[in-house]
Amino acid sequence: MSNIQTQSAEKPQFYLEEDHHPEGSTNLGFWLYLMSDCLIFATLFATYAVLGRNYAAGPAPADLFDLKLVAINTAMLLFSSITYGFAMLQMERGAKQETLFWLAVTGLFGLAFLGIELYEFHHMIHEGATPQRSAFLSAFFTLVGTHGLHVTFGIIWLVTLMVQVSKHGLIAENRRRLMCLSMFWHFLDVVWIGVFSVVYLMGVVG
Amino acid sequence: MTTNSTSHEDAHEAHHGHSHGHEAGHGSFKSYVTGFILSVILTAIPFWLVMGDVLDSKVATVAAIMIIGAIQIVVHMIYFLHMNTKSEGGWTMMALIFTVIIVAIALVGSLWVMHHLNTNMMVMSPEMMKNLP
């Protein structure tokens, strides 16, 4: 009887010592952050859905969007998603150099995406399609710009982690950070599916 | 003492097994490539539909874009974000379901309210109707 009591008394003590739980709660906490970020994008999508056809006699999506450029942009983000996946697989193998290599490739694809997007924005603004022109363009620049800003911060985070990994190696802390950035990066790709479907493709269809 | 050590052993094994299950949640080379190929196909179809002007009806094209986009989001969730009903004791799935409901309310509610606001805002003459963009 006393034996059983000591056993049941010792068990919770062991689980408290376990250092796995903080990591688990990091994943869940970061997931909750992503879900709240999802709500930001939902409000911006709702704004675009409401205002997206108010052109104020200005340019319409069919006049502005170059779908070939958008297709290339989508490919860049998709490539960066799978190369980040390869980085995670190398991280699990404990291969530091290979992880850094795939992270660098991911960063380059991310930069290519940003470069093409900035070129598109520059082109539109040059043609007079500025955010001030119509409600459609205000909603467009807010939604697509917020996504681009997320990608920018993702790249800054990626470079920071590359420095961390090259300095300290694939320690538990860096693995946790890489896991969080992985979720963030793939989440941005999910948001981009919504952007190219709702804004670009449905905009051009009319 | 012996019971103590075995319970430790069991707990360690359970912990180990758990972390293995966790690593499996990170995905394998095969699952990443599967997700990538599915994504490429699901991206190419809507772009082809719009750029090639394949379907005659606009409604059908928009419906196809929406459905394929939704499928691709699910593909990304499973193969890249490794969503399942078991991770974190099901709490990630709970958070996701909650978010999807809120997102649906925000989108449908905004469109519904603003549509009615638009149609009820002003009495329009037939001339004004014709000049609508």
Structure description:
The complex is a heterodimer of chains A (206) and B (133). Chain A has a domain at 63-201: Cytochrome c oxidase, subunit III, four-helix bundle (Four Helix Bundle (Hemerythrin (Met), subunit A), Up-down Bundle). In chain A, 86% of the residues lie in helices and 0% in strands. Chain A has helices spanning 2-17, 21-51, 61-64, 67-93, 96-126, 135-168, 172-205. In chain A, helix 4 runs antiparallel to helix 7 (172-205). The relative contact order of chain A is 0.15. Chain B has 133 residues and is mainly α. Chain B has helices spanning 2-24, 29-51, 58-79, 91-121, 126-130. The longest helix of chain B is centred in the last third of the chain and has 31 residues, at 91-121. The relative contact order of chain B is 0.06. Chain B: It is a multi-pass membrane protein. Chain B: This is Cytochrome bo(3) ubiquinol oxidase subunit 4.
- Radius of gyration of chain A over alpha carbons? 22 Å
> What is the distance, rounded to the nearest whole angstrom, between the alpha carbons of the first and last residues of chain B?
83 Å
| CATH fold group of the domain at 63-201 in chain A | Four Helix Bundle (Hemerythrin (Met), subunit A)
Please trace the helix and strand order of chain A, writing H or E for each element: HHHHHHH
Structural class of chain B: mainly alpha
Order of helices and strands of chain B: HHHHH
The quaternary organization reads as heterodimer
Beta strand % of chain B: under 5%
Low-confidence stretches of chain B: 1-24
| Major sheet details of chain A | none
Query: What is the overall pLDDT average of chain B?
Result: 80
Mean pLDDT of chain A: 90
Largest sheet of chain B: none
At CATH level 2, the architecture of the domain at 63-201 in chain A is Up-down Bundle
Number of strands of chain B: 0
* Most extensive interface: A-B, 57 and 54 residues
Strand content of chain A: under 5%
Total helical elements of chain B: 5
User: How many H/I helices of chain A?
Assistant: 7
Q: CATH homologous superfamily of the domain at 63-201 in chain A, by name?
A: Cytochrome c oxidase, subunit III, four-helix bundle
